[in-house]
Amino acid sequence: AKRAGGNRAMEFAHALREQARQRSATENELRRAVHADELFVVYQPVVSLRNGRVEAVEALVRWRHPVRGLVSPVDFIGIAEETGLIVEVGAFVLREACRQFMRWQRQHGTRAPALMAVNLSRGQLPHPSLVDDVAAIIEATGMRPGQLQLEVTESMAAQDAAVQTRLRDLKRLGLTLALDDFGTGYSSLASLHQLPVDVLKIDRSFVSQLETSRHHRVLVESTVRVAQSLALRTVAEGIETEAQAGMLAAMQCDKGQGYHFARPLGVAEFDAWLQARP
Ligand code: C2E
Ligand code: CA
Ligand code: CA
Ligand code: CA
Q: Which residue puts its alpha carbon closest to atom 21 of ligand 1?
């Protein structure tokens, strides 16, 4: 038994070393990727559930790795956070998204999305120059601050006083904040009024069960009600079916996002998608 335990310990140590090796390989490659044009941004439309109009787009980062192919943000945002590279990745996405937003304004006029949503990562918040950097990008691109929405998760927004202050400083620039993945974190409906957010994004895990679970229907409906009473806008994430869109519209959820409307699209794809709409 002792021997087996020893082997297991060695296997464990080996697995840890292997994990660390892969991690540092990814770290080095990500460091390079930021400067080698391997990162790019795709855009997912956010649509009004009332009238079908394109209200916004959410910018989502992608990494085209020369060997590994397309790497999902789920597989590198965490490493970017741990290594501090998130500051550069975040700045890249924000700059790129704001520039693209202004291109669409010029190209499509009133048909262009009126809002650009960009994800903010936990690791970006404590960075002392965050607010100045965001202000500089808005200024450089000529965007109106109200056309930018930053998305933070519940666990980020519900953190300490310093984080809350930082979020309020961001809002003071004139942009709006959305609470991402609502329902998956630990802040409850009851504590929503304390968070400096304007929009609530209902997590996909609730939307995907709307058709099959009464419990989830009730939860989503109450979430929309409470949001309304706090004058927060609601966006449902991960809408994949007509039925889900219909139920959410009936609950008076404001906007929807999901494969039912469009997947995250490259710029040319987005232009074609927009042109094809009535
Ligand atoms: P998120 O912010 O919750 O973004 C929504 C995710 O759901 C996206 O995954 C999107 O492609 C996916 N999605 C949208 N509609 C549907 C649907 O109908 N069905 C399903 N199954 N999925 C749908 P993606 O692009 O892989 O991003 C995953 C997460 O990675 C994001 O979740 C966000 O937390 C993070 N992320 C992505 N881009 C960025 C970025 O530029 N900065 C930061 N900090 N995080 C990012
Ligand atoms: Ca998001
Ligand atoms: Ca989300
Ligand atoms: Ca999510």
A: 238
